[in-house]
Amino acid sequence: MNNQTSITSTLVAETKTPVSVKVLTVLGMMTLMGGTITGVMTYINLGYSSSFFNQWLSAFLLATVTVMPAGFILMTALTKFAEKFLPKLNKKFQNILIGIAMALIMESGLALSTTINNIGMTDLNQLFSTWFNTVTAALPFAVAMMLLVSLTIKPKVEALLKS
């Protein structure tokens, strides 16, 4: 019996996902979501020009070190909140609610960081106006993308991270 327990423990240990795979998965998800949305927002702010790629990359890197880590923490907190306070709600509906909330929150943060990157903070009226236009123009795209991710990729990423 002790030998069987040892074999079972070994098999469980072998199926654990390495931390490096977990980190790469999270980075890949952040790149997909943040890169796509900051690209759309940069296009909304500036249009397409010869400097588009540099402006997008700068906006993406700014969002990577500010908005995205906060978003990852917030998504984890919202998931725990939904599990605790909405336990009877179907997991798919929990993910839809989390996806919509994250779309609104992340959209606002990404729009702010992208707008600051693209136009600066010298004129706060222009900053607010451009931020608002960016949020409203990119919101349908972000909501669709967040819902798609929440229903397809997020459950798989959560399972991977728990393993």
Automatic annotation (TrEMBL):
<keyword id="KW-0472">Membrane</keyword>
<feature type="transmembrane region" description="Helical">
    <location>
        <begin position="21"/>
        <end position="44"/>
    </location>
</feature>
<dbReference type="InterPro" id="IPR021529">
    <property type="entry name" value="DUF2798"/>
</dbReference>
<keyword id="KW-0812">Transmembrane</keyword>
<dbReference type="Pfam" id="PF11391">
    <property type="entry name" value="DUF2798"/>
</dbReference>
<feature type="transmembrane region" description="Helical">
    <location>
        <begin position="56"/>
        <end position="75"/>
    </location>
</feature>
<protein>
    <submittedName>
        <fullName>DUF2798 domain-containing protein</fullName>
    </submittedName>
</protein>
<keyword id="KW-1133">Transmembrane helix</keyword>
<feature type="transmembrane region" description="Helical">
    <location>
        <begin position="131"/>
        <end position="153"/>
    </location>
</feature>
<feature type="transmembrane region" description="Helical">
    <location>
        <begin position="96"/>
        <end position="119"/>
    </location>
</feature>
